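> call design_seq(struct)
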């Protein structure tokens, strides 16, 4: 084992001691530091063998934590793509999520509860904010309409 391989291994272990990584995310971090591809692949394989990396568990925990933060499936998919998760895996993970209507309703009751949804400008601001979070326009309108109906009764 040469010195560069040892440095790469130490770097990978330092990264993994700080936080959990998806394997491709760790590979990118190691490439960015200038470690050679053969060392990276050997170290990642060793980390899998030792249980330091577990992509399936990482994906489940990540999706659950993002969803609990009221992120839309679209926003979660974008974050997964940025971390190097393949499209078919993203689709498989996100098809199990509840409809985003519940997340929108939660946001309307918490973060946007002070907004007057009957006022056109306020409603537009809330719609724009929810759209930036990645929620579908149809879901946003349905949740706002439901919130307005509940507010008047």
């Amino acid at each position: 084992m040469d010195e560069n391989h040892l440095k790469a291994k130490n770097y990978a272990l330092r990264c993994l001691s700080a936080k959990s990584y998806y394997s491709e995310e760790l590979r990118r971090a190691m490439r960015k530091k200038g470690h050679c591809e053969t060392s990276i692949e050997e170290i990642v394989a060793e980390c899998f063998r030792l249980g330091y990396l577990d992509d399936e568990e990482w994906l489940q925990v990540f999706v659950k934590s993002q969803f609990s933060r009221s992120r839309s499936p679209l926003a979660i998919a974008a974050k997964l793509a940025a971390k190097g998760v393949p499209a078919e895996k993203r689709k498989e993970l996100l098809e199990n999520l509840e409809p985003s209507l519940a997340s929108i309703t939660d946001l309307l009751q918490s973060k946007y509860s002070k907004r007057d949804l009957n006022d056109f400008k306020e409603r537009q601001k809330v719609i724009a904010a929810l759209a930036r979070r990645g929620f579908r326009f149809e879901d946003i309108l349905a949740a706002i309409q439901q919130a307005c109906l509940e507010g008047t009764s």
